[in-house]
Amino acid sequence: MVSLYTEKRVAEIVAHNVRQLRLQANVSQRTLSERSGVALSTLRHFERSGQVSLFNLALIATALGRTDDLVTLFKPKEATSIDELTARAKPRKRARL
Q1: How confident is the model at residue 81 (pLDDT cuts 50, 70, 90)?
Q2: Which DSSP helix (H) or strand (E) runs through 89?
Q3: For residues 23 and 91, what is the distance between their CA atoms, to the nearest angstrom?
Q4: Phi/psi of residue 64, each to 5°?
Q5: Considering only CA atoms, which of 15, 66, 59 is closest in space to residue 33?
Q6: Which member of 25, 52, 68, 84 has the lowest number of beta carbons within 10 Å of its beta carbon?
Q7: Rounded to two decimals, what is the model's pTM?
Q8: pLDDT bracket for residue 89 (50, 70, 90)
Q9: Residue of 58, 52, 79 lying closest to 70 (CA atoms)
Q10: Max alpha carbon distance in the chain (Å)?
Q11: Domains and CATH numbers, the chain
Q12: Which pLDDT tens digit goes with each residue over 35-59?
């Protein structure tokens, strides 16, 4: 599937959304840093650039009460037909080296 977003743009959007959540909660960067355990410099860098480790993003999400959003990010979609259900039931064979 082709996306209209670059990886950099996706990271920037996520960082922007996190910043908006932080501001809506009326929480400073320093306070979020203390609550999450993420270094203040790391949090500032993330909000500016979108660059952060997955672990630190999980810490930030937890501090903002959004852990469930992160956990369900790549949740497989439910099968909508018998054909999809049958296709998923077939185990993949490992590639031989």
Answers
A1: confident
A2: helix 82-89
A3: 46
A4: -95, 0
A5: 59
A6: 68
A7: 0.78
A8: low
A9: 58
A10: 55
A11: 7-71 (1.10.260.40)
A12: 999 999 999 999 999 999 999 999 9
